Amino acid sequence: MCLTKVSLNTCIALLAAGLAPARAQSFITATPRASQRAVTSQRIALTDITITYHRPLVNGRKVWGGIVPFGNVWRAAYWLQEKVNLDEALKWSDRSIQIEERFDNLMTKGGVLEALNRATDAAAARTRAMEIGNATQVYFYGRQLQTQKQKAQAISVYRTVAKRFPQHWLGHMAQARAFVADGDFAGAIKEVRAAAAAGAPDAQKPNMETLIKRLESKEDING
Fold first, then answer.
1. What secondary structure does DSSP assign to 162-197, as a single string?
2. Tens-of-pLDDT digits for all 223 residues of the chain?
3. Cβ atoms within 10 Å of 4's Cβ, excluding its own
4. 3-state class percentages of the chain: helix first, strand second, coil last, to nearest 5
5. Buried b / exposed e across 48-86, counting CB within 10 Å, b at 16+?
6. Does the reported pTM lie above 0.70?
7. Are 78 and 115 spatial neighbours (Cβ–Cβ below 8 Å)?
């Protein structure tokens, strides 16, 4: 390890003698990568999710309105979160849906309409999202409602998942939660075991065993 002012020959000599110049620094400096590494983690229901990604630097490029075009549903979702520009957010939601109708843009539209006090239209948008969403999207929407203490709405969503995806492992989990709401703990235990046998990820199975023990104690897992 040598100061840049110290010649290479001097450094070699000192190192050979087992010495090193004071306040030394490496000749090789690790420069930051153009896209720096980042990691984010969150636990959602029974799943621990970790995403490792790289964040590209702007590097003189036009990002908003360039690389990332205006009009994507994220813009409406941001306005909804901040409760600003809601009329504009509704326009962007509709534009996104016109390009491609998806669960996420329909749910965003439903949220915007609710914020605009248009409850009937909001319910219609969410109903459509329930119709086209996949098992994971709809089930975890129910879990989201549950964490928001909207128990009745969550149970309704679980019943929808169980009806639409009866063979999917999340369909069985949804039916288990619906059975708990009906007071049928034996049926709920049967459904959790069916979920484990229907393709549930191995990482989820220890959590399912814990859930079964809670159900054997007749605990309301929807509380």
1. HHH-TTSHHHHHHHHHHHHHTT-HHHHHHHHHHHHH
2. 444 444 555 555 444 445 454 444 444 555 666 667 778 777 766 677 788 767 666 667 766 566 555 555 666 666 667 666 788 888 888 988 998 999 999 999 999 999 999 999 999 999 999 999 999 999 999 999 999 999 999 999 999 999 999 999 999 999 999 999 999 999 999 999 999 999 999 999 999 999 999 999 999 999 8
3. 10
4. 55, 10, 35
5. eeeeeeeeeeeeeeeeeeeeeeeeebebbbebbeeeebb
6. no
7. no
What DSSP letter does each residue of 75-114 carry, written as one string?
HHHHHHHHT-SHHHHHHHHHHHHHH---HHHHHHHHHHHH
To the nearest 10 degrees (0 to 180), the angle between helices 135-147 and 151-164 is 170
**Quick one: DSSP state of residue 28?**
S
Sorted by sequence, the CB contacts under 8 Å of residue 170 that are 6+ apart come out as: 135, 136, 139, 161, 195
CA distance 25 to 1: 5
CA distance 184 to 207: 20
